[in-house]
Q: What sequence folds into this?
């Protein structure tokens, strides 16, 4: 274990978490507000630009202003809360959310260094394991606030999250069966060479088997994406914080930076969830049609590595825009409908889907 | 392989440090204002709070958590199966036996396991454990 | 590496002590999560990557969530004010020391404990595949028994809470 390895890892962590995901969180909030304004025929935040000048930049300064505002607001801890857990809960929501990005391959190579923080052999399992810990932040926030709306919001939210964890876990099983891998870097490499899971148009997957496997993969993709919406508590699954019933759900009693950490954790989870969907179904960092696939052992030139990173980020941004679009297109579910969708429809379809994949893999040559 | 977990450890430290720093900085830089009883009360849409902060909730939530544990274990068994599926299938094809023979035990074993748990699921469904209205 | 082992062993034991020593049930449950996380890290340091990850996924992420739910469902105010009697403390300490001395004796008697662990082969890091290959060739029948066990658990859960459901 040498010092260069540690330094490179720290550089990758800072590069991905602080220079990519956190700015993406800030700007997806901005994009969310601008796009929802566009959809609802409003203007949205378009004022904040460069300070002391009249340059507005379509409101691109808004996230920075918001961040400073969060820092300067009064950090109020009501006296009826359970203090220790009240302080712990925001951190417990955010840390797992930021931790899950460790196994996502966000590029091929740059200067001969693999663009993934930790190339683990249990990739998606690691993400699910760490993501399952973020339930604690929400349960504890609801409980520690010692107030009715947060408590109900916390309970609702956590039981929704655990319900959809089942369908999320089942939905990726067909993908694992097809690739025979849990290592996300290898899954992406396989897709780069032989066709993305959702685009079997080149390489080995341009065959009858590949086309037939498209059916279970597409079903998996729909279940995975929908469960992701539910896991991140977004509309149409935002019952834990639906403002008409529960004010703001589990973070009603929070203010200032503690509230910001919940917000950050939620958006980071959404971005990393999109990243996982892109990695598993849309070829991760690879370009379509097998263009610019790095050879085994050959070094990747800088421009190609950079292009791969841009390709990954581009796909993730497209996914986030899809999240926002859905938010303003679908009405909210009722709680019984939500539970039925997760436990009855998705559970049964996902199980059937696994058997379908097994059948295709066994009987189609 | 174990070396790959060192970055995970580093990331735990960095992410934890970031959360701690954010909480501390907001205490340092945040505005402080006087407390008053109204501001200090639990938020209930501007009305005075009534009763204890913790309502007791339906046993349904507990039931869902319990069923979640059971079916989560089912999902966990599926992962090693899924990862080795192609390898086991290739081995079975090589032996050239019929689909109902012993070499396809990996397939029938999992089908049986899923079948037994599907009975459990149907039981839960029939008894209304997953009905919320 | 040895330093990391002692660190995670400490985390695990500290979590375990927290379960027993704290008054608030929520803190106890939470200490147990910490203990599980330490245990998961120890598994991973033994190159048992799958088991380590599942320790977090199933125990910390599913079973302890259930525990927290139960703690919140039942109002456990009484538990916090409970007096600890001297008798239970002494009895508990006695039991722990008897068990500990037994474990130490057994481990010392094992010939394998004196030797250093052999280096793992390269294929050992593919532990998910190895688990799958073994479980679905030689251990298909035990898998069915696990299925039946989970079925029984489901029936038990529903029967126990049936009164509430109606």
A:
């Amino acid at each position: 274990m040498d010092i260069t390895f540690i330094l490179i890892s720290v550089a990758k962590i800072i590069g991905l978490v602080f220079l990519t995901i956190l700015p993406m969180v800030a700007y997806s909030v901005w994009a969310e507000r601008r796009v929802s304004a566009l959809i609802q025929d409003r203007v949205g935040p378009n004022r904040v630009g460069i300070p002391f000048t009249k340059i507005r930049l379509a409101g691109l300064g808004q996230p920075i202003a918001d961040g400073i505002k969060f820092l300067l607001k009064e950090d109020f801890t009501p006296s009826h809360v359970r203090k220790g857990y009240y302080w712990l809960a925001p951190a417990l929501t955010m840390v797992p959310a930021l931790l899950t990005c460790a196994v996502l391959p966000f590029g091929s190579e740059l200067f001969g260094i693999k663009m993934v923080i930790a190339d683990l052999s249990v990739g998606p399992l690691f993400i699910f394991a760490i993501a399952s810990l973020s339930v604690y932040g929400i349960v504890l926030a609801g409980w520690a606030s010692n107030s009715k709306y947060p408590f109900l919001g916390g309970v609702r939210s956590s039981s929704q999250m655990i319900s959809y964890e089942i369908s999320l876990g089942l939905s990726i099983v067909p993908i694992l069966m097809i690739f025979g891998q849990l290592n996300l870097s290898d899954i992406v490499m396989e897709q780069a060479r032989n066709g993305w899971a959702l685009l079997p148009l080149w390489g080995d997957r341009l065959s009858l088997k590949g086309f037939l496997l498209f059916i279970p993969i597409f079903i998996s993709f729909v279940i995975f994406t929908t469960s992701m919406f539910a896991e991140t508590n977004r509309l149409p699954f935002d019952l834990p914080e639906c403002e008409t019933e529960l004010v703001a759900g589990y973070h009603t009693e929070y203010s200032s930076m503690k509230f910001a950490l919940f917000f950050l954790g939620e958006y980071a989870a959404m971005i990393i969830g999109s990243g996982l969907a892109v990695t598993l179904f849309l070829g991760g960092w690879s370009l379509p049609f097998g263009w610019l696939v790095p050879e085994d052992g050959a070094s990747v030139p800088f421009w190609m590595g950079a292009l791969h990173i841009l390709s990954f980020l581009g796909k993730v941004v497209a996914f986030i825009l899809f999240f926002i679009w859905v938010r303003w297109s679908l009405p909210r579910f009722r709680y019984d409908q939500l539970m039925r969708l997760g436990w009855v429809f998705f559970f049964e379809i996902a199980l059937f889907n696994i058997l379908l994949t097994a059948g295709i893999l066994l009987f189609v040559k | 392989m174990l070396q790959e977990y060192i970055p995970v450890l580093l990331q735990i430290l960095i992410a934890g440090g970031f959360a701690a720093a954010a909480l501390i900085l907001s205490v340092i830089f945040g505005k402080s204002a006087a407390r008053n009883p109204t501001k200090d009360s639990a938020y209930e849409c501007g009305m005075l709070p009534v009763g204890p902060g913790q309502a007791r909730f339906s046993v349904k939530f507990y039931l869902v958590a319990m069923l979640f544990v059971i079916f989560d274990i089912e999902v966990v068994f599926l992962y090693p199966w899924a990862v080795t599926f192609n390898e086991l299938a290739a081995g079975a094809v090589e032996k050239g036996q019929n689909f109902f023979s012993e070499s396809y035990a990996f397939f029938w074993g999992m089908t049986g396991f899923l079948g037994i748990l599907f009975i459990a699921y149907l039981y839960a469904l029939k008894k209304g454990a997953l009905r919320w209205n | 590496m040895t330093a990391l082992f002692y660190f995670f062993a400490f985390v695990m034991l500290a979590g375990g002590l927290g379960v027993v020593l704290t008054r608030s049930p929520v803190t106890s449950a939470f200490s147990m999560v910490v203990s599980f996380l330490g245990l998961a890290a120890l598994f991973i340091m033994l190159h048992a990557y799958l088991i380590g990850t599942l320790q977090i996924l199933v125990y910390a992420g599913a079973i302890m969530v259930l525990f927290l739910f139960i703690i919140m469902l039942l109002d456990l105010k009484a538990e916090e004010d409970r007096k600890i009697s001297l008798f239970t403390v002494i009895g508990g300490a006695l039991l722990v020391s008897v068990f500990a001395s037994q474990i130490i004796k057994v481990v010392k008697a094992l010939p394998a404990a004196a030797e250093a662990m052999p280096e793992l082969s390269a294929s050992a890091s593919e532990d998910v595949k190895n688990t799958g290959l073994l479980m679905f060739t030689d251990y298909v029948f035990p898998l069915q028994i696990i299925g039946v066990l989970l079925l029984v658990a489901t029936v038990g859960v529903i029967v126990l809470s049936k009164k509430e459901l109606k």
